[in-house]
């Protein structure tokens, strides 16, 4: 067990809590973006592709236009209008996983947590490989104090895409700050760092600080 500067430790914990509370606010047809192109670092093995983006379904033009309107309403914080517009989309295209994810994001922003959970689970039902929906659902469950359910959803996202750095990082935060399992936290912080073509300096600081505590 190593000692560490309490002030530095508190700053790092605060950074993790702030990051844990942040959520994507951009609504789009794919409902989030992370490069699906494999990355290589020297002699490292190629990273796997994002299964959701790799096999993305074609979005009808009408749905794209409707999604753009919902996005505009959301950015203006008119959550009622955005929700209504997205409900119309899901009614018309019920198998469009991204629309369900966006609906869940809007409902969560409007503090309609039960509705948001239902919409996020519907996004997963429509496309089990929607790792963004798994990750978003996990974060919401964590914030609601349902840590075991959140852990299961993060692991589900990682099972479907082992190189999903956001899920690894968020699961590391869950283990580190909420479940008090530093060994597992360090494992997932390192996995997140390994999956990032560009080394994250803040994440690296977490890894160093956590290693000192073990």
Automatic annotation (TrEMBL):
Family matches, as SMART domains = TPR
Q: Which UniProt keywords apply?
A: Signal, TPR repeat
Give a yes or no for keyword Ligase in this entry. Answer: no
Which regions are annotated as TPR repeats?
97-130
Which PROSITE patterns does the record associate with it? PROKAR_LIPOPROTEIN, TPR
Task: Answer whether the UniProt record assigns the keyword Cell wall biogenesis/degradation to this protein.
Answer: no
Check the record and name the PANTHER family matching this protein: CELL DIVISION CYCLE 16,23,27, CELL DIVISION CYCLE PROTEIN 27 HOMOLOG
This chain's protein is named Tetratricopeptide repeat protein
């Amino acid at each position: 067990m190593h000692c560490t500067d309490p002030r530095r430790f508190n700053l790092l914990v605060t950074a993790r809590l702030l990051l844990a509370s942040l959520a994507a606010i951009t609504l789009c047809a794919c409902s989030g973006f992370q490069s699906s192109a494999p990355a290589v670092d020297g002699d490292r093995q190629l990273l796997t592709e994002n299964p959701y983006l790799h096999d993305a379904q074609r979005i009808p033009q009408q749905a794209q236009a409707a999604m753009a309107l919902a996005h505009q309403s959301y950015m203006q914080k008119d959550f009622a209008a955005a929700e209504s517009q997205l409900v119309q989309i899901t009614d018309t295209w019920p198998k469009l996983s991204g629309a369900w994810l966006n609906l869940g994001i809007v409902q969560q922003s409007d503090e309609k947590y039960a509705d948001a959970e239902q919409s996020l689970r519907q996004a997963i039902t429509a496309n089990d490989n929607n790792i963004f929906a798994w990750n978003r659902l996990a974060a919401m469950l964590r914030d609601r104090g349902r840590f075991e359910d959140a852990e299961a959803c993060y692991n589900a996202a990682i099972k479907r895409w082992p190189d999903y750095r956001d899920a690894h990082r968020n699961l590391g935060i869950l283990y580190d700050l909420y479940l008090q399992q530093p060994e597992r936290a360090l494992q997932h912080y390192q996995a997140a760092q390994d999956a990032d073509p560009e080394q994250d300096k803040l994440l690296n600081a977490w890894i160093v600080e956590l290693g000192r505590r073990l």
